[in-house]
Amino acid sequence: MGVCCVLYAVRDATLAEVLADPPLVWRVIDADDASAYLREIGVGARRSWFARLFGAPPPAPEVRALSFSEHERQMADLDKSWDGLNACLLACRPDVPGLFDGSGKIGKVEVGYGPALYHRSETMLQIAEAYLSVTDAELLQALRTADLSRRYLAEVWKRGDPDAVSYLVEHFAELRCFLQHTREHSLGAILQYT
Question: What CA–CA distance (Å, rounded) separates 41 from 36?
Fold first, then answer.
């Protein structure tokens, strides 16, 4: 158990639809299963005893679907490395918007630990340009020098043993692939903490 972070690449147009109708975030996070979306919009909510006894059956729900481009919904599962990466990347590039803080919340829809966060493509481009220039050596130097005392998994990061280093570098490589993808295709991102 623990707090994990997953990033999803989306177009600004898709993000605008989700921001206008926050339950649609479930159609990004789990596009193949509409059950979470339906629960969020109240389908399947218990009707009163009187309505069940004398009322007509509930109308069939309308399941909204989003139309994704071929480059959307690529994801990066950063597992529990996200806050260690965050501390190191902020130490390496302090003038860049924080990737893991998001630019805002997507409504009040709980998708794990709180609402999903987002960045539009313009912000993701700034983040990608900065973080893609960070080398593994810089990241590991930041791991040794950054204040990690208040970070999630602080003891793991402060220990800095080979397993922790390998875990961080492996997930940094996955984050780089994701950032490269968003940069190449002018995409934003949705962040989910689970």
Answer: 9
Q: Degrees (nearest 5) of the Cα angle 92, 29, 86?
A: 15
pLDDT tens track, the chain, 194 positions: 689 999 999 999 999 999 999 999 998 998 777 777 778 877 544 545 555 566 655 555 566 778 889 999 999 999 999 999 999 999 999 999 999 999 999 999 999 999 999 999 999 999 999 999 999 999 999 999 888 888 888 888 888 889 989 999 999 999 999 999 999 999 999 999 99
| H helical segments located in 5-116 | 12-20, 25-29, 35-40, 49-54, 82-92
Q: How far apart, in Å, are the Cα atoms of 40 and each of 24, 27, 37, 45, 46? A: 9, 11, 5, 10, 13
- Spatial distance between the Cα atoms of 57 and 25, rounded to a whole number of angstroms: 28
Task: Output the pTM of the full model.
Answer: 0.86
* Dihedral in degrees, nearest 10, Cα atoms 72, 74, 77, 82: -60
Q: Which helix (H) or strand (E) holds 106?
A: strand 104-110
